[in-house]
Write a structure and sequence with these properties.
Blueprint lengths: L2 H9 L3 H22 L2 H18 L9 H25 L11 H5 L4 H7 L3 H12 L4 H8 L3 H21 L5
């Protein structure tokens, strides 16, 4: 069954369709969030995303554009969480140390993961959406609210940064 049909069924109030939609898209959304944050925060943020999706589904005007809409919600939720945490980290009342990605520390041997987590957020996001979530340039542009040309330039820069990082670590092309 297509996502568009599932969305229409959800909009008509079929609870089973909501379950199918969540089952189909939970893992890709969680992977995206996990790659932008760490595993500990990914569960909470993914749950927030699905609450927003379920609340917003009745207002989705174009059911065929569900995937970009879904990842736009995910992107905003990730950005909100990062903004919230950066605000807390900069607060003089907080005496917390900012720790690295717990998963990246556990997977030090996976230089690709370390390289990906070392990229700036915009470049990391575009790599995750394009290569790991298999979204088109146009869908990535819609999700990030930038022109397709900007996505292409971010992809180019992200690939270069990742390649440079991997070469520093001794990996050959």
């Amino acid at each position: 069954m297509t996502d568009e049909l599932l969305v229409v069924r959800c909009q008509l109030g079929e609870r089973e369709a909501v379950t199918e939609l969540v089952r189909a898209w939970h893992a890709p959304v969680w992977r995206y969030v996990r790659r932008m944050l760490d595993a500990e925060r990914a569960d909470d943020v993914t749950q927030e995303i699905w609450l927003a999706v379920i609340r917003g589904l009745p207002r989705l005007a174009e059911p065929g554009r569900f995937v970009p809409w879904l990842f736009t919600i995910a992107r905003r939720a990730v950005a909100d969480r990062l903004r919230e945490e950066y605000g807390r980290a900069e607060s003089p009342l907080q005496d917390e140390r900012v720790t690295g990605d717990a998963i990246a520390e556990l997977v030090d041997r996976a230089e690709l993961v370390a390289g990906l987590s070392g990229l700036p957020a915009l470049e990391r996001e575009v790599l995750v959406l394009f290569y790991l979530e298999d979204l088109s340039i146009e869908d990535c542009a819609e999700i990030c609210a930038v022109p397709p040309g900007t996505i292409k330039s971010r992809l180019h820069r992200a690939r270069r940064l990742l390649r440079d990082h991997l070469e520093e670590k001794g990996f050959q092309r």
